[in-house]
Amino acid sequence: MKNEAVSVLADVELPLAVPPPHLVRPSLPEREKAALKERIKKALREKDAVLMAHYYTDGDVQDLAEETGGCVADSLEMARFGARHPARTLVVAGVRFMGETSKILNIEKRVLMPDMQATCSLDEMCPALLFSGFCDRHPDRRVVVYANTSAEVKARADWVVTSGIALPLVQHLADQGEKILWGPDRHLGTYVQHLTGADMLIWPGFCVVHNEFRAGALETLRRLHPQAAVLVHPESPQGVVAQADVVGSTTALIEAVHTLPNPEFIVATDNGIFNKMRKLAPGKILLEAPSGGDTADCESCAHCAWMGMNTLEKLAAVLESGGGEILVDKELAGRARVPIQRMLDFAATLKKG
Ligand code: 13P
Ligand code: SF4
Fold first, then answer.
1. What is the reported pLDDT for 294?
2. Average pLDDT estimate for 293-310
3. Dmax over Cα atoms in the chain, in whole Å?
């Protein structure tokens, strides 16, 4: 770890971000589920649409995306896939910022989402007006925002980053002597600051799912499973990140299960990711990292209730009714695209190097 002295948590009052209750839905009888999937497949063909699902969505939704020639991916890859695919309509099973990013990068396409209420606590805890005013008060800092933000917040930023590229990008800015205003995830910001030594003013938002992983209970679980590698998404608290064998984006964690020799893995991220991990490494044992406690903001589980809103029924409904369209003002999308494109260009230079 490098310099820890130049990170400050911004003193702002965060709006509440309360996830919906976790609904325990009766599972559909197999015949009904198959019929529903057929309806969706037919509608995708008729509407010239492709389905892109995030790793945290329901396994049936992920499987359907793959069966129909769509993709299951992280948020950035979903948007990239949409740009490459010839379909006129992109159906984004994920949360709102993912639909918005897809629209920003594919402004001429129609972008649909199964449930427009599916949001993200990081996005909710970083309202554009409050954030923009804060940026105005710190004009000497480069504004770097995580992808889990609204189009308005992205438009106010100099750079957008995903968890996969945050470290090299902040390192690059720090090497140039830039001071950084980081938002909105405090844990990812702190992790990046510790490894780069960058001078960072950090917005104090958090993910209500990852914030619940518990360092003490993780230590106990590790003692019980000494052969397990610990995989942690950097939206988790510092005490959890400190115990990780691998810290990384959803894509990096999936890759680790596939490539590391360990027979067991303790995974500190949304358990929707297990669907893909099981497929790529069927022989490995996967354990959820312990979460929750007396102060749980979420209902003590490793699953994002907003991601859970993407059901097969809603997918069929938006495709058949044409509702659920994501709209982003063209001028705003143009401004939000600039820092996203900077990130993509920076990522391309890393691949070359
Ligand atoms: P990715 O950018 O890896 O898709 O993660 C998004 C997210 O919401 C993590 O909680
Ligand atoms: Fe947002 Fe957390 Fe849900 Fe990811 S898991 S979409 S960061 S609330």
1. 47
2. 74
3. 61
Which spans in 245-309 are helix H? 250-259, 274-280
Pick the CATH number of 210-288 from 3.40.50.10800, 3.30.70.1230, 3.30.70.560, 3.30.420.10: 3.40.50.10800
Is the beta carbon of 200 within 6 A of some atom in ligand 2?
Answer: no
209 close to ligand 2 (CB < 6 Angstrom): yes
User: Which one of 207, 211, 249, 271 would you pick to mutate in the ligand 2 pocket, going by the greatest count of ligand atoms within 8 A of its CB?
Assistant: 207
pLDDT in tens, 202-238: 999 999 999 999 999 999 999 999 999 999 999 999 9
- Of the candidate CATH numbers 3.40.50.150, 2.40.10.220, 3.30.420.40, 3.40.50.10800, the domain formed by 8-18+124-208 belongs to 3.40.50.10800
**CB-ligand 2 contact for 51 (6 Å cutoff):** no
Which element (helix H / strand E) includes 64?
helix 59-67
**How confident is the model at residue 293, as a pLDDT?**
53
Phi, psi (deg, nearest 5) at residue 280: -80, -25
